[in-house]
């Protein structure tokens, strides 16, 4: 099994020209993972026309820089509690989803076996035909594609939302993780679906697609989903903890903390799998060596204070993926008492 490994790093300086006016945005710069962002806009007006100034101010409001702020300890405590509660809820929800999917599959097979004895009506309305076509296309997808497609779709929608000027304040408040902000908890989760750069989005989705299939073969769809969602929040907490220790608050966004957990899990489960780099297929290396090098670079980035990536989020996601690779199967088995109670509760509602 040969999987293409892509790890692209970019620092975005978003530049847009409106006639004679140049705006340099320096507030988003995180790529194949969560990256600290300085929120600052530099406006340089070439002509002092009031018409140009008003048009720009209407579309883009300046943002004050927030980097370098101390992180309140109360926010760190809230982030820790949210991480634990969200991770438990993710795996519990994944267990219930697994139960419901299995139940629906058995009921559908029983219904099909019963209806096979009777002729079926062929008359279909336009709406019903459309629903049937969509269902047929969905059923043709592989299990990994049924997980990847919705995740990718959500990331694309959030990416497009960044392009709506009226939503920019909302996106900064809730789709960027900022440990010094009032809203600390839910941005830890929402920021894992947030990408400002198109190349950032492409790189993360490419890596997720590459490692999604082997991970789902090993974990199953539901456990994979629980791991992915939990890992994103764990990576955000690792970033917040690092920023609190170094007293360097700042914005972070991106799915790569969660993707690093999937990558680390696959590399731990299949260490002898040969990987290669996109556009350099002649260079191959084992998955075990790859995860060691990647984690080593992120560890060095944390120690040396590199700010090009959010190395703490990378490292936190990778460590969580390794933890699940070695201990996840035992933890996942502990869901059975909860599923049994849910089954009993469901019977009382029928």
Automatic annotation (TrEMBL):
Q: How does it sit in the membrane?
A: Multi-pass membrane protein
Query: Which EC number(s) does UniProt give?
Result: 3.4.21.105
* InterPro entries, A to Z: Peptidase_S54_rhomboid_dom, Rhomboid-like_sf, Rhomboid_protease_S54
Kindly list the places in or outside the cell where this protein is found, as annotated in its UniProt entry.
Mitochondrion inner membrane
TM ranges = 79-99, 147-164, 224-242, 248-266, 278-306, 312-332
* Catalytically driven reaction(s): Cleaves type-1 transmembrane domains using a catalytic dyad composed of serine and histidine that are contributed by different transmembrane domains
Q: What is its main location?
A: mitochondrion
What are the GO cellular component annotations?
Answer: mitochondrial inner membrane
Is the keyword Transmembrane helix in the record? Answer: yes
A Gene Ontology annotation in the biological process aspect, one of them, is: signal peptide processing
Name the family the entry cites. Answer: Belongs to the peptidase S54 family.
Quote the protein name from its UniProt record. Answer: rhomboid protease
User: What taxonomic ancestry is recorded?
Assistant: Eukaryota, Metazoa, Ecdysozoa, Arthropoda, Hexapoda
């Amino acid at each position: 099994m040969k999987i293409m490994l892509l790890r692209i790093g970019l620092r975005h300086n978003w530049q847009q020209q409106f006639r004679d006016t140049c705006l340099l945005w320096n507030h988003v710069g995180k790529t194949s993972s969560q990256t600290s962002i300085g929120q600052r806009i530099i406006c340089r007006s070439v002509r002092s026309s009031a018409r140009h100034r008003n048009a720009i101010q209407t579309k883009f409001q300046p943002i004050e820089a927030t980097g370098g702020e101390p992180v309140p300890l109360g926010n760190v405590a809230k982030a820790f509690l949210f991480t634990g509660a969200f991770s438990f809820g993710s795996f519990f929800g994944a267990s219930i989803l697994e139960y419901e999917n299995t139940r629906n599959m058995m009921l559908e097979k029983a219904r099909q076996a019963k209806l096979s004895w009777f002729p079926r009506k062929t008359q279909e309305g336009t709406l019903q035909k459309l629903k049937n076509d969509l269902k047929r296309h969905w059923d043709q997808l592989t299990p990994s594609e049924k997980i990847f497609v919705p995740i990718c779709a959500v990331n694309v929608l959030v990416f497009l939302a960044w392009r709506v000027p009226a939503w920019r304040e909302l996106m900064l408040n809730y789709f960027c993780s900022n440990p010094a902000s009032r809203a600390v908890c839910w941005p830890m989760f929402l920021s894992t679906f947030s990408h400002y750069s198109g190349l950032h989005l492409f790189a993360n989705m490419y890596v997720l697609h590459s490692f999604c299939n082997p991970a789902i073969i090993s974990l199953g769809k539901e456990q994979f989903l629980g791991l992915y969602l939990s890992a994103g929040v764990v990576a955000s907490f690792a970033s917040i903890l690092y920023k609190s220790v170094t007293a360097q608050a700042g914005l972070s966004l991106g799915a790569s903390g969660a993707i690093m957990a999937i990558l680390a899990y696959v590399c731990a489960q299949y260490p002898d799998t040969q990987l290669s780099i996109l556009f350099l297929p002649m260079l191959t290396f084992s998955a075990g060596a790859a995860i060691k090098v990647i984690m080593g670079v992120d560890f060095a980035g944390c120690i040396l204070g590199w700010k090009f990536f959010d190395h703490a989020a990378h490292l936190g996601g990778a460590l969580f993926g390794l933890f699940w690779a070695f201990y996840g199967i035992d933890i996942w088995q502990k869901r059975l008492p909860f599923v049994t109670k849910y089954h009993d509760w469901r019977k009382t509602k029928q």
